[in-house]
Design goal:
With about 250 residues, the chain is α/β, with parallel strands linked by helices. The chain has one domain: 3-Layer(aba) Sandwich (Glycerol-3-phosphate (1)-acyltransferase). About 45% of the residues lie in helices and about 15% in strands. The two termini are about 15 Å apart. It holds the Pfam family Acyltransferase.
Length: about 250
């Protein structure tokens, strides 16, 4: 079984890499023409859809409320798998990511650094600079994807880590709605403790936005708790015995 998953994983990596090479030149448009930043979301969406189609992973994108295409949002998903980044590309809203630097990956690191907002969480100066860039990006009209856990913390069964303040501080300061996002099955498809793909349908759920109006920075823990509870409540509904590895 592991051998077949290894072959499937290798195929998935090859498809991902080939699609990156195909989209490399189009993605240079928003790199060099900053006002075309929305194209980042458009190309990421095509990339994500093609990737899942070509590796044979059926996917469902569910919106609990129709989002206003002309409004900015901060999307906050749970983060249990490396597959989550590609999954967030399925979002119908054009976004950029705020996440850790990927400079160690040739070409991809260059593209990610120039299209998205990166952070080295081990350095206080980098975290501060990222917060400033995040606020600036919101002032420029961009919608953002921020993983509030700050990385993949869970090792086996998905247990969300304590949320960091960044996304919620930015949302309150700039009065941008937060969209909680539940990704319930990626930890099964690509487990955090082993880089081996497993076939099963993928799902991503975009919940109703949390309106930050009326909140101040003194309420940041209340907002974090509200968003976390929405994601976790949905997640628990999907954690049935049948959905665990080896039982489906």
């Amino acid at each position: 079984m592991k051998f077949l998953r290894g072959v499937y994983t290798l195929y998935g990596v090859i498809i991902f890499s080939l699609l990156f090479l195909i989209f490399f030149l189009p993605l240079l448009i928003p790199v060099f023409f900053k006002k075309q930043f929305r194209l980042t979301g458009v190309f990421n969406r095509w990339w994500a859809k093609l990737h899942f189609i070509l590796i044979g992973l059926p996917f469902t994108v569910e919106y609990r409320q129709k989002l206003d295409p002309d409004r900015q949002y901060i999307f906050c998903p749970n983060h249990f798998s490396y597959l989550d980044i590609i999954t967030m590309g399925l979002n119908s809203h054009n976004t950029i990511f705020v996440g850790k630097t990927l400079d160690n990956i040739p070409l991809f690191g260059f593209m990610y650094r120039n299209l998205h907002i990166t952070v080295d969480r081990t350095k206080l100066k980098s975290r501060y600079s990222t917060m400033l860039k995040t606020l600036e990006a919101l002032d420029e009209g961009k919608s953002l994807v921020i993983f509030p856990e700050g990385g993949i913390v869970t090792e086996k069964d998905p247990v969300m880590a304590r949320f960091k303040d960044g996304a919620f501080r930015a949302a309150i300061e700039k009065q941008i709605p937060i969209v909680p996002v539940t990704i319930p099955y990626n930890w099964i498809i690509l487990p955090p403790d082993q880089f081996l793909l497993r076939w099963r349908p993928l799902k991503v759920i975009f919940h109703e936005p949390v309106d930050p109006s009326g909140y101040t920075l003194a309420d940041i823990d209340q907002v974090k708790s509200r968003v976390r509870d929405i994601i976790d409540s949905e997640l628990q509904q999907h954690l049935t015995y049948e959905n665990r590895p080896g039982t489906a």
